[in-house]
Amino acid sequence: MKNASFSIEELFRFLDAGVSAFHSTAAAAAILEAEGYVNCPESAAWELAPGGKYYTTRNGSAVLAWRMPKGELTGWPPATATRQPGASSSSTRRTRSSPRPRSRATAA
Known about the structure:
The protein has 2 helices and 3 strands; from the N terminus they run ααβββ. By secondary structure, the chain is of the alpha+beta class. The protein has helices at residues 8-17, 21-34, and strands spanning 38-39, 53-58, 62-67.
């Protein structure tokens, strides 16, 4: 959204459309799409490009929008690196022992 085109009337239209979290999310998504943001469904694999504008929604009641940096991303693992879900980033895996059952004392 461009600050130059912002008006109090637009704010009131947005607030009037947001009678629930679901309506507000739909209104925000419409504004984002009008501004060139691309919807990234939470359940799909995302293909993000440098300088791209994206958003996602959760359960139709929350929205998250972001812009990618224009340059190359640094500090990220290579795209070919794979890791098992839940595995730590270090080479050693820690295991947690299961809790020991507690004995229950009964009154005699």
